[in-house]
Amino acid sequence: MRLSEVAGKVGLTFSGHDIDVGGVNTLAKAGAGDIAPLLHRKYLPQLAETQAGAVLCEEKFAPEGKSCLIAKNPKLDWARVVALFAKPQGCLTGVSPQAYVHPEAAVGEGVTLYPFVFIGARARVGAGSVLFPGVYVGEDCEVGANATLYPNVVLMAGTQLGENAIVHAGAVLGSDGYGYAQGPQGHVKVPQVGNVVIGRDVEIGANAAIDRAALESTKVGDGTKIDNLVQIAHNVETGRHCLIISQVGIAGSTKLGNGVVLAGQAGLRDNITLGDGVQVAAQSGIGQDIPAGTIVGGSPSMDAGTYLKVSLSLPKLPELMRRVRRLEKALEGPDKETGHE
Amino acid sequence: MRLSEVAGKVGLTFSGHDIDVGGVNTLAKAGAGDIAPLLHRKYLPQLAETQAGAVLCEEKFAPEGKSCLIAKNPKLDWARVVALFAKPQGCLTGVSPQAYVHPEAAVGEGVTLYPFVFIGARARVGAGSVLFPGVYVGEDCEVGANATLYPNVVLMAGTQLGENAIVHAGAVLGSDGYGYAQGPQGHVKVPQVGNVVIGRDVEIGANAAIDRAALESTKVGDGTKIDNLVQIAHNVETGRHCLIISQVGIAGSTKLGNGVVLAGQAGLRDNITLGDGVQVAAQSGIGQDIPAGTIVGGSPSMDAGTYLKVSLSLPKLPELMRRVRRLEKALEGPDKETGHE
Amino acid sequence: MRLSEVAGKVGLTFSGHDIDVGGVNTLAKAGAGDIAPLLHRKYLPQLAETQAGAVLCEEKFAPEGKSCLIAKNPKLDWARVVALFAKPQGCLTGVSPQAYVHPEAAVGEGVTLYPFVFIGARARVGAGSVLFPGVYVGEDCEVGANATLYPNVVLMAGTQLGENAIVHAGAVLGSDGYGYAQGPQGHVKVPQVGNVVIGRDVEIGANAAIDRAALESTKVGDGTKIDNLVQIAHNVETGRHCLIISQVGIAGSTKLGNGVVLAGQAGLRDNITLGDGVQVAAQSGIGQDIPAGTIVGGSPSMDAGTYLKVSLSLPKLPELMRRVRRLEKALEGPDKETGHE
Hints:
3 copies of one chain form a homotrimer.
Chain A: H1 3-10, E1 13-15, E2 23-24, E3 34-37, H2 44-49, E4 54-58, E5 67-71, H3 74-85, E6 100-101, E7 106-107, E8 112-113, E9 118-119, E10 124-125, E11 130-131, E12 136-137, E13 142-143, E14 148-149, E15 154-155, E16 160-161, E17 166-167, E18 172-175, E19 180-183, E20 186-189, E21 195-198, E22 203-204, E23 209-211, E24 217-220, E25 225-226, E26 231-232, E27 237-238, E28 243-244, E29 249-250, E30 255-256, E31 261-262, E32 267-268, E33 273-274, E34 279-280, E35 285-286, E36 295-297, E37 302-303, H4 304-313, H5 317-332
Parallel strand pairs in A: 2-3, 3-4, 4-5, 6-9, 7-10, 8-11, 9-12, 10-13, 11-14, 12-15, 13-16, 14-17, 15-18, 16-21, 17-22, 18-23, 21-24, 22-25, 23-26, 24-27, 25-28, 26-29, 28-31, 29-32, 30-33, 31-34, 32-35, 34-36
Antiparallel strand pairs in A: 1-5, 19-20, 36-37
Helix pairs in contact in A: 1-3
């Protein structure tokens, strides 16, 4: 592709020679046929030395005499450039004779079903979707158009997955929620008869788990991105455009507003609500409702400013204890008026 | 089904008209053909407005003129009502010709093997069990009667799974324990030659992992319920009727008594013992034996009462440091007799 | 096998009678045909009472009149003894006609492909490797010789896996990294066009996830051992011989030196570096570079000595607050000169 063509497709201008480009790489590794991005000032030294045929950067950083895509929003512009060169994974198309498709299932136009895919009764797979080997789509599921289900993804019965979904290998949607009633002979399972409903443009990471609702639906809003190994319990509802990062756990019936960000390994208790735009630091433990727009950290969580100060104070706690002991001794004096312990 | 029939099957009385009911739902979403439960006082306003044909609640809450199942133990009674309406997942029965069954395997009566199931040599699958697509049962495994193995569940060689087990999609039982000896050229694997033994009435969550023992067996007691993404290391033993909630990790050779509850993301070190009825708060880190009946929280853990107080004190730590500094200054006075730093 | 033969194969001497041995077990469970090890002094009472035909222990502990393999390094010597008796899992050999092998794939000599294995275009599987049911090897992958891929392991396109790799069931290598740019209509996916490169002698646990790089490669060094349910994000690089224990999460572009040990549930932020030999305690949260040889704990982390003291002090924090209040009151006196709040 000519650099001018790249520029045209992503709506950027370019400076320098109009060269042939065939791929993308980092400033450090790119060669004469590659475009490389400047995404952070710390890479400026690499920009000066790169062998890349062309670079993408803000105008103020554009190197003399180098072909350059002029970015306004480098991260976003770069995402679009990469998309031009990324080719989708996979090496087959069409419906494999080694897939199992239930006679009552409906498979849309242009769908690819790899060998060892299973499509259950009354399930519908939207046009253009690609289901890799080992994918299970249970009865009464609905998979939207242009979805990508990587190997061994499991959609239990009745799961609804929106358009353009990307579900990474091993993720499980619609497993039973963890619900038991205490009986005289142990825990009695509460059958989980709800389902999972995923909006459009959602991405779900490898080996993540999203449980079906006890009743009604567990819901993930449009555009929400869920990372690997995340746990979403029954009846959770997330808003739109949330970011839920690896190994986060969200307990039953908790609700997230729009644009919520949960950093890695954070845990949210059941039956709470996080307002729009809440941001939760990594490894935090959230035990109560969090108002919209708040940033919190710690386990149990506190507001981010307090958490930062507590984190800085904590290593000094042993010394603080010694200081208080010294104060007590000083105050006790010879007559121990205020002594204790 | 008539409401009178429902009442008879679960051993409850009912009040009001004997109507036809066809399903279950929440008070908010139920329609004229549904039964809906009152499981918490906070839903009393919904009880007043529900469109449900019938409700399940304690006698004191029974609404005038509404068909009502009178519950003594609403959660338990509700579990039984839901079970009447829940239908098992799946759309096939019998042994699929697209399953692989080793000639030396023994498959019991009424077993369902979906396409792409693999049953290894000398494995035995008990009567009435259902194995969904992609399930792997290694050689010498024993699956008890009426077990349900959802898609892509893996039982490595020699795993024993008790009657009525429910194993959710992607769970792995019998993977090698994490055992290495330090050698001159790096870590040398200690082959893991034990197995996994799971009692009866056990449920295991999606993408959970239970390692085989180094020697002897990793054991899960009868009636224990394990949530999604839990890690159980080699030679762990759990008692009966434990609740092990999502993303908990239990390190090697640790033992749990009966009725232990581990809340989400808690971590237990290796080679410790938790007595009967121990309860561990979410995200706790347990580094030592915990006596029976104790409730603990925190990382490292402390008794629950202390943990609660510490959690309340912690946000005040930065202010406490300032107060101590003020005290020191006050005591130092102009002559700095007790000064330090 | 004769005990003398065992001793010869692992390079140990033995004392006592040269008996027939057929297996290995613990001191408590071993019988007359078994060898059992003494791996910790706490088992000395079991050594005295064991029914094992032979024991492995240091010379000073060798029981009178019992056949004994004299160990110099008991754990390492035991690993080698167990390896003599451990038989590899599995019950088939050769390439199953129920596997799918792309015509452009290259499968080496002596490879075993179980039913329901998928090998994509241009993928190469090294000689002697064993791929269990449900394994997916995407296009352009390279699997080294003598690798073992347990059921439902997924290698996405372009993954390189070194010789002697052991990948446990359900692990996913090469899933997309979690990368988005903020756009006007929500998060825009940055296509992940790098890959995963795993060194030789690496073991990866059940349901672990290792993401492909955005550009270039996510790398795991030779001899590194990764436990179950670990998350390794895009562009992470680990050194050689690291130990990464269950449920650890490592965020994007973070680098580990050689011999790093990360205990269970630890979390590492993105774009930091841990030097050679760093050890991280369980559940720690690492937010910054850690110099080589350091031991750290806590979330946020501090050096291990401080962390230990803080952990001991923390339960006393509520009492400390009361003590400071008492000091303030004592100092305030009747005239409140230094009072506050």
